[in-house]
Amino acid sequence: PTAGAMAQEPMLLLAVTEHVANSATFTYFMAGALRRRISSHMFPQQFPIQLRTKSMRLLCAPQLQERYPDQPMELELWARQQSLVSCHPHALHRTLFGSAEAFVVLPNATRVPAFLLNIDANVTGKPRITRNRLGGTVKLTGGCLPCPVPQVKRLENLLKFGLWLFGVPWANSECCPHPVP
């Protein structure tokens, strides 16, 4: 920026290096802070797919419904290795390496393991300033499960949809808009 531009309007200069960002993700990963439990009661009742064995029958595991008829389920999500951040002009890219383990929750509150999936995703974040507010958007740019089985492909599509429906809006609400002093 030139001295004239700085004198005419306020400016925020923010510099983040890949080293700083990757050090932060390493710290969160090593501290075990990248873990989340999702339970069936977190979904709105009107949502078309519920976290229950009945819904999993259609997606990937018909035997769950036979063995545990219409029981609630929980998902444990966690980072299985440190995510990687790369800085590019106008955007930050992050590669996430996660795992998801599903459990059937029995009436006595016992959790029975159902399946485990490894999930990799690429996310792009773009910062922006609007009316003296610092914000940004997050976009899922890719993701995959390392298994080509047709039932798992349906589950992969559901997880991508869930990340797009819940994860990306959550990330966007967390990062934008915050007032700029």
From TrEMBL:
Domain of life, source organism: Eukaryota
Q: Which UniProt keywords apply?
A: Antibiotic, Antimicrobial, Disulfide bond, Glycoprotein, Immunity, Innate immunity, Membrane, Secreted, Signal, Transmembrane, Transmembrane helix
Any matching Pfam family? LBP_BPI_CETP_C
In terms of InterPro entries, this protein maps to:
Bactericidal_perm-incr_a/b_dom (IPR017943), BPI/LBP/Plunc (IPR032942), Lipid-bd_serum_glycop_C (IPR001124)
Q: What parts of the sequence cross the membrane?
A: 12-34
GO BP: any one term: innate immune response
**SUPFAM superfamilies, alphabetized:** Bactericidal permeability-increasing protein, BPI
Chain ranges of the Lipid-binding serum glycoprotein C-terminal domain: 6-180
Give GO MF terms, alphabetically. Answer: lipopolysaccharide binding
Q: Under the cellular component aspect of Gene Ontology, which terms does the record hold? A: extracellular space
Principal localisation:
secreted
Gene3D superfamilies documented for this protein: Bactericidal permeability-increasing protein, domain 2
Q: Which residues does UniProt call coiled coil? A: none
Q: What does this protein do?
A: The cytotoxic action of BPI is limited to many species of Gram-negative bacteria; this specificity may be explained by a strong affinity of the very basic N-terminal half for the negatively charged lipopolysaccharides that are unique to the Gram-negative bacterial outer envelope.
Q: How does it assemble?
A: Monomer. Homodimer; disulfide-linked.
Q: Which PANTHER family match?
A: BACTERICIDAL PERMEABILITY-INCREASING BPI PROTEIN-RELATED (PTHR10504), BACTERICIDAL PERMEABILITY-INCREASING PROTEIN (PTHR10504:SF84)
Q: What is known of its domains?
A: The N-terminal region may be exposed to the interior of the granule, whereas the C-terminal portion may be embedded in the membrane. During phagocytosis and degranulation, proteases may be released and activated and cleave BPI at the junction of the N- and C-terminal portions of the molecule, providing controlled release of the N-terminal antibacterial fragment when bacteria are ingested.
List the protein's name: Bactericidal permeability-increasing protein
Native source species: Indicator maculatus (spotted honeyguide)
